[in-house]
Amino acid sequence: MIEIENLRKSYAGSPVVDVPALNMPQGGVTAIIGPNGAGKSTLLSLIGRLETPGGGGVFLDGENVRSFRSTDLAKRLAMLKQDNSLTARLTVADLVAFGRFPHCNGRPTDRDRAKVSEALELVRMTELKDRFLDELSGGQRQRAFIAMVLAQDTEYALFDEPLNSLDISHAVAVMRLLHSVARTMGKTIVVVLHDLNFVARYADHVIAMKAGRVVEIAPASHAIREDLLKQLYDTDVAVSTRDGRTFVDVYG
Ligand SMILES: Nc1ncnc2c1ncn2[C@@H]1O[C@H](COP(=O)(O)OP(=O)(O)O)[C@@H](O)[C@H]1O
Ligand SMILES: [Mg+2]
């Protein structure tokens, strides 16, 4: 269970995250939604200990994430950042193997190699495993990074806008994959998403943020409502159902 208590973060005196109390839903896919600048990435980075809180803390199964040894945290929680830039010239397989580092400390066993192959297969990158990252399209590179997180094989996995640069077919494939990984392996997946139709279709829970605060946490079927979305984005939207599925239309 990921629990948040009195979590605050400011930049230059301006609060960007202010969450008095939050229990992240355990299991399934939780989507974090909200406008640009709402604090979604900062919240994820605080959970993944990539940022230091100004106050309060994040607790993983009762223990403050700041008190974990790095490798112990990396065995339990993995994170894909919003902007992945790597200067080193790596192949896809090298990158994905990094996900096993906390488990094998640089000496991969057959099990580590199997986890790398499995992750490559899951994102359909096996054929491209020997390509260098700078020889890939943006979407292929994004899938390689997703595979690295999956290879880490943690109970908790956080993804910040993982659908960036993916075409609709790969975006659907990634969302189905995250959904099935959560379902079949009992993992807790937290994902920042902008496409509200994907949220409606693939998320179990929604955390809605605006101006650094959590304005709602609810099952996705309840959160995808016109009043909440209008409040979040200051934009006219229409929510409808067809064949038992929820759709969000945006009026520009
Ligand atoms: N390193 C930083 N230094 C200063 N301000 C930052 C930094 N990172 C984020 N911010 C600011 O914090 C706010 C929240 O940013 P972010 O968490 O990235 O929002 P989101 O992911 O919801 O778009 C924004 O106003 C952003 O400009
Ligand atoms: Mg962000």
From TrEMBL:
Quote the subcellular location field of this record: Cell membrane
- Ranges for domain ABC transporter: 2-236
Q: Which UniProt keywords apply?
A: ATP-binding, Cell membrane, Ion transport, Iron, Iron transport, Membrane, Nucleotide-binding, Plasmid, Transport
Major location category of this protein: membrane
The source's superkingdom equals: Bacteria
The family database entries (Gene3D superfamilies) matched by this protein are listed as: P-loop containing nucleotide triphosphate hydrolases (3.40.50.300)
Instruction: Note the PROSITE patterns from the entry.
Output: ABC_TRANSPORTER_1, ABC_TRANSPORTER_2
- What Pfam families does this protein's entry cite? ABC_tran
Identify a single GO molecular function assigned to this protein: ATP binding
Keyword set includes Signal: no
**Membrane topology recorded in Swiss-Prot or TrEMBL:** Peripheral membrane protein
Task: Provide the protein name.
Answer: Ferric enterobactin transport ATP-binding protein FepC
